[in-house]
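Usage

Read records sequentially. Each one opens with the input sequence:
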Amino acid sequence: MNNADPVINTERLRQLLDGVNAFGFNAVTGGYNRVGYSAEDMAVRDWFADQMTNDGLEVSRDGVNNLFGRYGPDTGPCVMAGSHLDTVPEGGAFDGSLGVCIALECVRAMQDAGIEPRTPIVVAVTAEEEGRFGGMFGSQTIVGAVTPDWIEKASDSDGVRLVDAMAAQGLDAHAAMSAAWEPGSIRAFLELHIEQGPVLERSAIPVGIVEAIAGVCNLQVRYTGTANHSGTTPMDMRADAFAGLAAFASTIAPMLKAHGSGQSRITIGKVELSPNHAHTIPGAAEFLINLRDTSETVMRELRAECLRNIDIAAAAHGLTSEVREKSWLSPVSLDSGIRDIFNEEADRLGYKSLVMPSGAGHDAQTMQSLCPSGLIFIPSRNGISHAPEEWSDWADIEKGAQLMLNALVRLSTA
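and closes with the structure output:
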């Protein structure tokens, strides 16, 4: 770099991230709780809006509480950069929040260097990215992918409806229908995120450049049998809902071997048994199947196999089954031109990088349907994420942030 190049101020970035993480911190567990449309989620957005206002950005929000800070010309297509501030319950300090803070720090670094972009930069804080209600609601709103039917049906794993959660915060979920950005209004979307996996750390590579993002399918399954006494009911006369769940779970590895790829993932989560007592056979089991792959063909084949095996396990244990598809996000290939810019700037900075897929979903995959999109990864210690132990080293954060800054300068000043 020459002396005129803007440089990330790491200490300022650290202070900004600390400010975000003052919201929703659980001192007992070390986790962070800013689930979508909670009081903590709303409060951190207000605080971050104030930060951008103080930096001289033109701040606005849409009806679903996506937050935008514009730097540069008042009109014309923009380059958008950002991520999300919401967390999973008891989540980590870096997931999403780091990408938002880096986007604002890049603008601050450009201001320090006296760089006025020809193409405006918009710092974006997307709403409800973590999928509490089954999608990436904020970025799906931006690209116009939300439907009235989905809004009405969307609910979280505890049965709370999206429309009710938003109404409790003074928001109308149906405002999503009039909040989409026009085609051509965003020239590029850039996001930085922690990897949430072990590949970069194990390879001792500080920067990942994402070429494709896995799709995600969430299936809500309920097995219903008969609750009964665990001591008096013979094993061959039971309709044990948990036994059906266990039988289905045993099919996952063979399914993946027969129909999956190296990027396939099937996970059972959020299991609830009823009645959930030590001496009672479970009469009902409700659980979520999370299915991912970078190939839509593979995803659809695995989904069909899951449905088949759900039925087989139910029949084998005398159960009825109900399946509801909570969400489907197709896999996406990100823009090759943005990827080239990341690669070229990483080479110019002397950073070793790796072109790689993402097994986790990110706003960039949604945004790709509206504009060219790119995603930078930095390493996650031990590959841990969505947990209080989540950590990324600041030496890696600084490299990823500088790469993002260089790309933004290049895209906004050309």
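Summary fields computed downstream for this record:
- Residues 215-329 form a domain with the Alpha-Beta Plaits fold (CATH 3.30.70.360).
- The mean pLDDT is 96.
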